Amino acid sequence: MKRESAGSLRPADAGRRVRLVGWIHRVRDHGGVLFFDLRDRSGICQAVVSPSDAAAGIAGKLRAEWIVAVEGTVRLRQEGARNPKLPTGDVELGDVALEVVSESDAPPVLPSSTDVPDEAVRLRYRFLDLRREEMQRNLTLRHRVLQATRRYLDAGGFLELETPMLTRSTPEGSRDFLVPSRLQPGAFYALPQSPQLFKQLLMVSGFERYFQVVRCFRDEDLRADRQPEFTQIDIEMSFVDQEDVLSLAEGLTRALVAEAGWELALPLQRLTYAEAMARYGSDKPDLRVPLEIVDLSAFAASLDAPFVQSALAGGGVLRGLRAPGGASLSRKQWDELSGQIERFGLRSVPYIALAEDGLRGSLAKAVPPASQEALCQALGLEQGDAATIIAGPEEPTSLALGVLRLAFADRFSLRAPGHRFVWVTDFPLMEWSDEEGRAVSRHHPFTHPSPEDVDRLEAEPLAVRAQAYDLVLDGNEIAGGSIRIHERPLQERIFRLLGLSAQEAQEKFGFLLDAFRFGAPPHGGIAFGFDRLVMLLCGAPSIRDVIAFPKTAKGTDLLTGAPADVSQVQLDELHLGVKAAKEPER
Ligand code: ASP
């Protein structure tokens, strides 16, 4: 008999004899009558075995996660025994014949349980964890979004072309994973941080529209929710300007999120980097939070606080942010918030609160009575609200307010339901790196400066804007890209500004500079962080929940034990010695 899907049976099937093969999801013994749920990828179906049935002997032995083949007759469940939560909840299999296909030890992760074990156990037994309905759903959506990507881009005339995994390091600002060459002692390949230079070369080669679903590797200290290897939807186009790339990316985004049932109205909202920083204190603002930073420079002269005067004398800004309901925060709670903004050089969070008995808070005394009303109005304060007011150099002040904006959103549950997409454009081309003691590229060195700023490159490199853009979803960067430099002299100029000598530039990027001598088309592109996008579409708490076999925050694969020691023979073949062998951190 042909195998059918457990999740497909409906009342219309009543009377049919069917064969299902799948896992025992759950067994229940109701006074000798055994009920078991059989699970396969399509869903779950209940089967019933009475003590008098021939199958009773085998049925009594069944345990969770054994695989069985069941032949049975579909029948309607009795009134009161129906389960409206299950698509198959109106039917069950009776009169069953059973055959054990595969036995199971007691599983450390039980797919039928709502008690999800620790992540370490889940990752160690990932093959079991992946049997859980949530993980099956996440990876199924991942697949669907992937297929939608291919359909959309193929229909748009894009070619999916593969680029090497063993390559030479491309600078995306992270450390490379290196692979020693056996055939060339002492030489190393790098795993790609992104296919950036190859996709640009494919434009020089005349393919005009390229995409790739591609694994990228970055050897970072894994802060937050990152993986050392991750998947990008990588896109590059020739003879385009920024508008063309944004509109392609918007169309693609709409098609992808539709797989999760989201509807997207186009065009998407846009903010320049300068606006995003001034209004939200972030280059990836979460627009579900209805708070905006307010410029308070008009109040600078009237505020009687030395830190305000000295910040402004030094060319700084004065800005504030409302905390709706914030008058309920105690001084201790304000002090706790200050821990989050210490890194911006602030020791405390100066604040005012509009309480029943008037203005309170650490800054209240600095506000002369004559300015109180106007200040409260500028900040949008109503009774019961508070606001923080910060003075200082522009960037750290904005960033600190951006952090507090999210902290207020968390504390007072301010995020509106739904999802908010926004483009952030006109990023600075370069930023100062204290570590390097020089300007470094903000995106990567192949990003085209805004044409109107090119003349200022040498004089004011940090003021130059780039034709670079990020797509932000609910405070997460989900895609980023730029128009590229395709003119050799300009590319050489940028390398010079970044402190690369002509010789170094030739050594590292000679192949790109050479390519630009032979008819390079104007081009640009974008890359979507696929794991993060799918995570947001699934509503999953971590990208690990949308990757079949992820690594821990320390970069360990708990399933296989990678990274692991290798034999001396392997090291010798690779001409390698290990300096100090250390117990690997798990
Ligand atoms: N290569 C860039 C990145 O990985 C994306 C791009 O510029 O297209 O972030």
Characteristics:
single chain; 586 residues; 8-stranded mixed beta sheet; 6-stranded mixed beta sheet; globular; binds aspartic acid
Number of contiguous helices: 15
- Roughly how much helix do the residues carry, as a percent range? 25-40%
Class from helix and strand fractions: alpha+beta
| Widest β-sheet, arrangement of strands | 7-10-11-23-22-21-18-12
Description:
This protein has helices at residues 56-59, 119-124, 126-129, 133-155, 196-204, 242-258, 273-280, 306-313, 331-338, 369-379, 394-411, 488-497, 502-515, 530-538, 568-573, and strands at residues 3-4, 17-30, 33-40, 43-49, 67-76, 91-102, 159-160, 178-180, 188-190, 209-217, 229-238, 269-272, 294-295, 317-323, 351-355, 358-360, 386-392, 421-425, 430-433, 438-441, 468-473, 476-483, 523-529. It has 586 residues and is of the alpha+beta class. Strands 7-10-11-23-22-21-18-12 form an eight-stranded mixed beta sheet, with helices on both faces. Strands 1, 2, 3, 4, 5 and 6 form a six-stranded mixed beta sheet that branches. Strand 19 (430-433) and strand 20 (438-441) form a beta hairpin. It starts with a strand and ends in a 13-residue tail after the last helix. The protein binds aspartic acid.
